[in-house]
Write a sequence for this structure.
């Protein structure tokens, strides 16, 4: 797979225009079209839908763009390494819970970015079901999970610490005034849960099943912030890391439920076992460790 074709593909995907891509790449539009066609023939599927004068990525094209970014970043990193250039070019792809990305990551990046200004960062939420494969094929370099452990023999996890978990609701909800609440009290309640933020969600659902507790409904949301806003609007109950609702509880906009037990979740840093760790990734991992040791 030729790097020039990947570069052309990425440029067209960014601009969604063959003419503009040709101008950026300083070549004829026919050359761009030929390179895209050759890449599509090599892969065996169309990467773009041609609709009149406009183009759109196909589903296969959207997937290929992830790999193209990664392969081109690896090329840049390899060239910088063997030429002895200043370290810090390339890209790191990170998967982490939204809560961690919102409340912890900015403090880490404040130290990391000045040391590695040339590193591109791709940061998205974690999806446990695909994580092992993403780490194996290097579309993801490093992942983080709110969980106590991960049952995958090819993955190497490092325990960074624990975060308290709170059951919360809106002020005025009957559960907000009870002196002692447990899973049985969630019978018939509306539960708001994140789609991909946590491993503790799975534990919650397993416990509800074991306790034979049936919520009125479960509403899944992609955003922790959306869950908080729904709670503050007067809807339902959720379980969430304490740091994500600390200010809202203090201000009286969200009510903590007096749960019968103290709850917490582990924070794991996860890599594919025995994979080479480039210097920018190694430095990032060290900064993460330092942050969690110091907090």
């Amino acid at each position: 797979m030729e790097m020039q074709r990947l570069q052309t593909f990425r440029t067209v995907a960014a601009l969604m225009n063959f003419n503009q891509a040709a101008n950026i790449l300083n070549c004829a539009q026919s050359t761009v079209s030929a390179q895209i066609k050759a890449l599509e023939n090599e892969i065996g599927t169309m990467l773009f839908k041609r609709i009149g004068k406009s183009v759109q990525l196909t589903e296969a094209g959207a997937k290929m763009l992830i790999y193209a970014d990664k392969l081109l970043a690896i090329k840049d990193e390899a060239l910088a390494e063997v030429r002895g250039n200043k370290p810090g070019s390339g890209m790191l792809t990170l998967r982490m819970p939204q809560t961690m990305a919102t409340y912890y990551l900015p403090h880490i990046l404040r130290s990391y970015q000045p040391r590695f200004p040339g590193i591109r960062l791709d940061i998205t939420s974690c999806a446990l079901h695909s994580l092992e494969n993403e780490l194996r094929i290097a579309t993801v370099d490093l992942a983080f999970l709110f969980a106590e452990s991960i049952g995958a023999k090819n993955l190497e996890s490092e325990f960074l610490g624990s975060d308290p978990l709170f059951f919360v609701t809106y002020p005025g909800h009957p559960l907000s005034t009870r002196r002692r609440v447990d899973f049985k009290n969630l019978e018939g309640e509306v539960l708001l849960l994140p789609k991909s933020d946590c491993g503790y969600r799975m534990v919650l659902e397993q416990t509800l099943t074991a306790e034979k507790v049936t919520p009125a409904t479960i509403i899944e949301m992609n955003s922790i912030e959306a869950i908080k806003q729904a709670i503050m609007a007067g809807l339902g109950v959720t379980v969430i890391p304490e740091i994500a609702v600390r200010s809202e509880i203090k201000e009286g906009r969200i009510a903590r439920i007096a749960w019968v037990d103290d709850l917490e979740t582990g924070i794991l840093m996860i890599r594919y076992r025995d994979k080479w760790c480039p210097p920018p990734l190694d430095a990032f991992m060290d900064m993460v460790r330092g942050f969690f040791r110091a907090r």
